[in-house]
Amino acid sequence: MKSRKPAIDAVLICSLRYHAELIVKAAEAGKHIFLREAIALSWQDRCRARAVEAAGVQLQIGFNRRFDANFVRVRHA
After folding, report:
1. Contact at 8 Å (CB) between 65 and 71?
2. Are strands 32-36 and 59-62 parallel, antiparallel or unpaired?
3. Which residues, in sequence order, are CB contacts of 32 under 8 Å at separation 6+?
């Protein structure tokens, strides 16, 4: 799949569902990906997300810790 927007280098995926499908589409379009946790909800979807390796794009997963007790304590300090 070729990108319709060659000036866009990366995408941010923050959906509550369908991460694997969006990861595959972005990777096939040659876009780097920042993913808001979780990569997939099933093993099959996780395996589909390996399209990132085949496409040679970067994938970073962000894990939100803003409600973690230690994080809150440091923030208030």
Report:
1. yes
2. parallel
3. 9, 10, 11, 57, 58, 59
The pairs formed by 37-40 with CB atoms below 8 angstroms and a separation of 24 or more are 37/61, 37/62, 37/63, 37/64
* Radius of gyration of the chain, Cα coordinates, nearest whole angstrom: 15
Q: Tell me the whole-structure pTM to 2 decimals.
A: 0.70
pLDDT digits (tens, 9 = 90+) for 62-74: 877 777 888 888 8
Sequence-distant (≥ 6) Cβ neighbours of residue 77 within 8 angstroms: none
SS3 65: coil
pLDDT digits (tens, 9 = 90+) for 11-52: 999 887 777 888 889 999 999 999 887 777 777 777 777 788
Number of Cβ within a 10 Å radius of residue 13: 18
